[in-house]
């Protein structure tokens, strides 16, 4: 999940580059699939599927063409809840290990009246592990989600650091 709001404009190139470099390790491997959920997407205040689960090469191409949309809404708790409980039209494999990774520079937000704990429970109930790449000052908005699901939080930082962190998570 990627925050596509206007404030992410300066971070998006590093996020895209880190994710593309990370996905290189899985090119040609049909056991690894990637999806992109925009927060928000395509506009407004709702999360949406930018790219349903696909191979690493298609994922990398979509990241190369995607950009922020200028919206000021970042429904990060809504997107987490909807991704984990399958409200969004993501084609999860039934037997797959499920991970949600969020990149955002904002505090946790909802437009559906959800709490961080409700987002965390949606992930926990559906066996989804949550990882966040978030500005350190906003970690407290996502620490319950990552903690309850066995995930972790990382700094929304340089491309090389985020790629290293992603590789560590999924090694």
Pick out its properties.
171 residues, alpha/beta
Describe it.
35% of the residues lie in helices and 19% in strands. Helix 1 (12-24) packs antiparallel against helix 2. Strand 2 and strand 3 form a beta hairpin. It has six helices and six strands; from the N terminus they run E-H-E-E-H-H-E-H-E-H-E-H. The strands form two sheets. The chain has a three-stranded mixed β-sheet with strand order 1-2-3, sandwiched between helices. The chain has a three-stranded parallel β-sheet with strand order 4-5-6.
Mean pLDDT: 96
Major sheet summary line:
3 strands, mixed
Q: What sequence of helices (H) and strands (E) makes up the elements?
A: EHEEHHEHEHEH
State the helicity in percent bands. Answer: 25-40%
What's the β-strand tally? 6
Terminal-residue CA separation: 20 Å
Class from secondary-structure proportions: alpha/beta
What Rg is obtained from the alpha carbons, in whole angstroms?
A: 14 Å
Q: Choose one word for the global shape.
A: globular
Total DSSP helices: 6
Please describe the topology of this protein.
Layout: E1 2-3, H1 12-24, E2 34-39, E3 48-54, H2 56-65, H3 76-84, E4 98-104, H4 116-125, E5 128-134, H5 143-149, E6 152-155, H6 159-169
Parallel strand pairs: 1-2, 4-5, 5-6
Antiparallel strand pairs: 2-3
Concise overview:
It contains six helices and six strands, in the order βαββααβαβαβα.
